[in-house]
Amino acid sequence: MNSQTSTNNQQPAFRWLAISLLVILLAFPVSAEELFRLRITNESGGAVEVSVDEGRAFSIVGRVTKPALSAIASFGAAAYVPPGVIAATAIHGIRIKTIQMADGASRAPMTISIVPSEFSRIPKGYGGMEASSSGMYTDIPAGTAIFRTFAPFVGSPVYLQENDRLRHLGENYKPAAGDTLVVVTERPAKWPAAVEFENHVGGAVTAVYPDGSKDEITKVIWPVSGVGRYDGASYTGVGCINTNHGGVLTISTAPISDSPLFEGDGPERRGGFMVQPSYHATTQGIRVPQVMIIGPENATSAVLEGKPPLFYGNIALAYDPTDPANSYRAQVRIDGGEWERAPEITGRVDDAFKPGKLATYFAARGKKRAVKTGVTHIRVLFPKLDHAFLTSQLRKCAGIYSSSTVAGGAKVISGTLTINAAIKDSLAASYVTFLVDGQVVAITNSSPYSYDWDSCRVGDGVHTIEVRGSDDAGNPVSRKSTQIVVKNSKR
Predict the structure, then answer these.
(1) Is the CATH code 1.10.357.10 the one for domain 406-486?
(2) pLDDT digits (tens, 9 = 90+) for 118-134
């Protein structure tokens, strides 16, 4: 009897504790999940690396061919994001916001850029920002590696690596040769499964979440009815994301081209359309068939600009034709029918999404199809980006880079490698520094100047080992580097 009474008296206390824990959980939202991070050494030959395990191991996916030496006045939409973050992610280049500089009565945003190999020269008909001296030019092809699966979200924070510490870039950063930048990309706690657009004036723009819940974001002011020529679209793929920044979402309607010509040379291979928030569209003076405008009518300040889920922190470039669930994909509904693949259209076609052109499009592909209204709905499907996919993609990117850049005589290693300094003038050398991909891994002042390096600390692929001998004053007396290929994983 006493035992039963004691249990009953404790029940309110347990109930109160459970309620208190629930209140605490609701008060503190689930934190974001790190997906991957990039590390780029801003010097000629500097490694471009990716990690999918929060920076414990990196794999090289490319190298810098020319470093950035300045920040320059940039595209206007960079003003919608704070300093020290990714301002734009695109198949043809990544922009990093550094500072908002005074420029007369206005304030011009300043950026530095990471540039793929095909855009080391400006293509014909190029309409984007020219990186010039602000560019970290790379040997990575457009539409691959950091310009595809490992492209960061707009708003991803950028850090300057100083020894083993990361310092946020802030707004006073000026790039210098030898700097190492780290970009951390996180999946937000509230991650959509899709965003849907009703393609007519007053149509709803709705975010759909994995649990089936929905949020109406805004309304369509100006529907899209055509496609146009957008930079980088020939490297993007039909229905794939081409560009995202604080004032633009660009979707390609062009297939990935295998032409050896630069974009803009030869037959037109670009095609796509845009979604823009209303205030930014007003500042650009844009009301054309190729651009859908969304948001409050007659906006006098930024409302959707630089905000999730469309213009900050959610959209990048991931796409793998063999893995739709881990790909961003744009689909359409024609005449309100079922969702289907976006049409494949290149060049400028102002009425590409209207009945006449769509009927012609299908007929040319052997499909007789009556079209009454045209494209009535558009949606962007968001990927899972699970760890298995990212790991597999990184292995693939590192392997491709390894096979394309390493000479046949390069040493393939696994496990532990003993690095011997072989200092020519051992009397002059007071200490020896061992570096892997520009990062110090060991320092010794004891002969015979060797170090046992565990290659499992880095990802598979090409890596550069460097040995530097220095005198008492820190002056170099010897320096030697070599490339090796790490292969620890079973593929």
Answers:
(1) no
(2) 998 888 888 888 899 99
